[in-house]
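hi! just following up on the protien thing from before. the input was this:
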Amino acid sequence: MARLNDCVPGVENENAVVIRALHPDEWEAYKKLRLEALLREPHAFGTPYADAQQTPDASWRSRLEAVGSTEDARMLFAERAGILVGMAAAYPKAPGAVEIVSVYVTASERGRGISRRLVETILRQIAANPLVTNATLTVNKGQCAAPAGAAHDVHLGAR
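and the predicted 3d structure came back as:
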């Protein structure tokens, strides 16, 4: 059972959730979590599980390399005790705007604020780029943690 402080920034314990990017060498952990997400929550993603299963291993690695080499894209992961338990990404949508996508938290970790931490961390990182002024997160029907069918825009302030 998780303790209340498991997701509180600044509180350290061996079970704390860490939000971080992955190194391209960690592509297998990314692949495992992504396939789990596609299998368990297919309505929340644009890629069918069967298609993702056929993705060559080199592509999983190159996705992590690509997102690590740009100013306006992010892919972050939540990790507890060395195991990935969540992910979220942001990609350019239009000039000055990004879309937050692929938000997923494993079933056993839901309700602990992990998706909120992932999205907030991405927003903080994106806000550091003066060319990005807007971020959008769309929630599909069936995702019970947010109003179904809602699109949430965040304006990152005048630059």
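Strands lie at 17-20, 74-80, 83-94, 97-105, 134-138, 151-155.
The helical segments are 27-40, 49-53, 57-67, 114-127.
cheers
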